[in-house]
Amino acid sequence: MRSIAFGDFLIGLGILFVLEGILFAASPAWMRRAMKSALATPDNILRIVGIGSAVVGLILIWVVRR
């Protein structure tokens, strides 16, 4: 039996794949430029953006679950 939290995780992962797929399908050239830009960005900036994104995501989950 799967837990509710695991089910929510899979739904979130599915939504991530859907959104990413839509972006690649709608504008592959823009996504290619975005990936090249990410490759040129220093590691510390990517790390800060990643941590910030994770924190915002956790806060959003906490607000919705509350």
TrEMBL record:
UniProt keyword annotations, A-Z: Membrane, Transmembrane, Transmembrane helix
Entries under Pfam families matching the protein: DUF2065
TM regions (residue ranges): 9-30, 45-64
Top-level taxon in the UniProt lineage: Bacteria
Protein name: DUF2065 domain-containing protein
UniProt organism field: Bradyrhizobium uaiense
Taxon lineage: Bacteria, Pseudomonadati, Pseudomonadota, Alphaproteobacteria, Hyphomicrobiales
